[in-house]
Structures are given as structure tokens and as C-alpha cells.
TrEMBL record:
The keyword ATP-binding does not apply. PROSITE patterns: PROKAR_LIPOPROTEIN. This is Serine protease. Pfam families: Trypsin_2. The chain crosses the membrane at residues 9-30. Gene3D superfamilies: 2.40.10.120. SUPFAM superfamilies: Trypsin-like serine proteases. Keywords: Coiled coil, Membrane, Transmembrane, Transmembrane helix.
Amino acid sequence: MKRLIDPKIYIPAVAALSGCALAALLYFGFQTFTNYKMQKEEAIQIQKEKERELELQKEQDSAARELKERLRDAELADLKQQLLDLQNKSSEVKTVTNTVEAKDTIVDIVKEWGPRVAHMECNWFYPNGVLFAKSTGSATIINFTNLGIRAVTSKHILAEKKNYAPNVCKILLADETEYSVLINENTVSVGPNEDWAYLTLPKDARLTSITKSTVKLCQNVEIGDKLLVLGYPIIGSKTGLTVTEGILSGFDRDYYITSAKIDKGNSGGAAVLIKNDCYLGIPTASVVGVIESLGRILKGSFVISN
């Protein structure tokens, strides 16, 4: 006879198997749902990214159209301006011509006066020949009828050491020709009260050549007149002449006041009035204000008359 399975064993076994099958079904169903949900979210995210890309592309296209419109407007404006310039060509040519003439005038003045303006260095030595001190500045070479050729400069350059005159001063021209002047009562003259001095120079061919034209003293000077200051300031060119431009800003007894930049080293150079190409005087000092500084120029009448 066949042996029957005991119901006490069979029923629990079937129940266990059914539970396992149900759990498996639930697990796989949950996994399937989770995967579906993730895929759906990814699809949504991809869709959003595409929408953002489309929006960005629209913005770029809009910006490109706006830029093209601006360029077109700018080109039209430029064409209109060119047409206007052509219509006003005659007046423009006149203005440009006047500007060039003014620039040429300044260039010509610098070419004329540049060779006259020299770099000057004065040296003090100990008795044993060791250098004690030095001062630098500028000088203007002038050929006086009764005095001969002199280097006109500022007295304070020679009085750097108040109680002692320098032993020697060197005059270096723009073409690098150099003259040494031994300082004594025969080679130097100074203003009694004003800031000017003369140094005697030899009457050689080079100095005679650069001083052959007569120096004109400025007359009828007015506030607002344009001027040039020529010299060798410490902060200027290391190898050549420096030129600054300004106007005559006022009068102060023996001095003209100017907006032209005058720095240490300019002292002793030349101030030239542009309108008459004449000698205005000796740049000598700057007085510093709250924001800017105004230079002072000793009137040329002290030099020419002395």
C-alpha cells in the first residue's frame, strides 16, 4: 500500500512555499517598479535638459539677432558720419592744417633751442680729491655781446653746499660735447639776490655755432600765453632733453608763474614763449599746492640786462 503524506507536515510546507513564492513575487515586482520609476525620472530629466538646451539656443539666437541689429545700426551711423565728414571736408582740412602748423611750431622751437640747453653737474671734492657731493641741473648757452659765451643757470645749483662753492662744473651739450669749468671768481658770476648765475665758456667753433642766433627777450607777456620749458629734470629722459608745455598762469614780482611742469633738474634750463619764439627766463622752482604744483620762472630781463 502507498504511504500517504501526513497532513500535519504537508499543509505547513505548502504554506511556506506559497509564502516564499509571494515574497519573491513582491520583491521582483518592487524591483520592476523601482526600475520603471528610475527610468521615468531619467526620461523626465533628459527631457528637462533638452528643454533647457532649447531655451539656451533660443537665447543665443536672440542675442545673435540683437548683435546683428546693433552692428547694422553702427554701420549705418558710421556711413552717416562719413557722409557728414565729406560734407564738412573743407572746414576739417582747415582745422587739421592749423593743428599741424601748431605742432610744427613747437618742433621748430625745440630744434632751435635744444642745442643751447645743456645738462650741468657740479662737484665738490675733499682736499684729497675724493668726491664729497654733487648737484645737477640745466644751463642755457648764450653769446653775450660784451661778455662772450656764458652758460646761464640757477644760482642755487652752485650753492648746494651753502658755505662752499663747487670745485668744478661740467657742461654737457645735447651732442655729448662736454666742457669742464673750474669754479673761481673769474669763471662764475651770480645774482646778488636773484636765482641766476653765469659760467664762462670758451669761444670755440661748436659753441659759436649753436649761439650764432641772437636771443630775443620776450616783451608784452600776457597771462594765458603758451610756453615751453626745456631742461634735464631728474625724472625726465636719461639720455636727452625733456620738454614740457604749459601756459603763463600769473606774475609774482620777479617771477612768472606757469602750469608747465618744472622738476628738480629743470633749474637753469630755458623757458621759451611759443607765440614769439623768445626767451622768457630761467625755470627755477615749483611750489606744490594741495593737488598740483605751479612752476616759477625767473624773468629773462635779469639775465639779458646783467
